[in-house]
Amino acid sequence: MRVLLTGASGFVGSHLYPELVRAGHEPVCLTRRLDSARSRWPDREWREGDLDNEVALRQALSGCHAAYYLVHGMADHSADFRRHERETAERFVRAAAAAGLDRIIYLGGFEPQGPPTEHLASRLEVGEILRAGAVPTLELRASMIVGTGSISWLMVRDLAARLPAMTLPAWLKSRTQPVAMDDVMAALVTALSLPVPQGGEWYDLPGPDILTGRQVLEGVADAMGLPRPLTVEVPVLTPWLSSHWVHFVTRAEWSVAREIVVGMAHDFLAHDNRFWSMAGITPLPFREAARRALAAEAAEGEIPGFWGGVERLMKRRVRRAAAPV
Predict the structure, then answer these.
(1) Could you give the CA distance from residue 6 to residue 256 in angstroms, rounded to a whole number?
(2) What is this structure's pTM?
(3) Cα separation values, 164 from 203, 226, 228, 305, Å
(4) pLDDT in tens, 172-181
């Protein structure tokens, strides 16, 4: 199947491309910066276009059977970002219908068990707009994706690796179901062949483990062979204030990390796991997902800079403590 891949240079899109090729599909990548994209991935087929340009979007969709909608302005804090997100989704729906697409596949986020942040509400709203269009749309929803390149994974990985002790805000008691990047990729590829009703459908993609933020941090430390961080609960430390120390300690882009942290005030639990049953996929437990993410990171080499040095120092201390006398 020939498919258009929006967000092709992002975290999900860049990992999805080889999986689509491996499954026998023909992905076409959409980019606003053609020269840069071709320089980075010269072996991939690129089409120049912008989601704000409906004419260019129709041209990019020409000849494709399906499209992946993998874009969202998490870093956009303008007053009218939700309006822009709506208009972008509406424009995409029109272009997809004009191109005669068979389906759209959208990766969104879990619906929290409480009031969503503006950005979370926008992601859910985009899913509703896509599913309401003329082209059948399958919306898949995930919470924390465990894999290199995921901002939420990067945050907890860096905190567990760099802080032997930390204050633990009360909001880290909120629960979620982290899902392995490998499982998300398998779900996105499988979504090309699943039946989709005309009115569209959505499914949650939960990992098999329900974990609090504290348990996630402890699980990452275990996977890295480090002592679990000593934590002291501080109920007055709000998510908004916490985002500032997250920014200091981790490599996560602050504008995005802030939205993730503020959104963690409530549980993010799946409605059900029917997608996995329907697709015949058994999702990986969190420990294995974390192990794979860390192995992929290690293959890329050591982390440079100050915090990379801190991590290496902590690991040396752990090895010395474990060495026989």
Answers:
(1) 19
(2) 0.90
(3) 38, 9, 7, 19
(4) 778 999 999 9
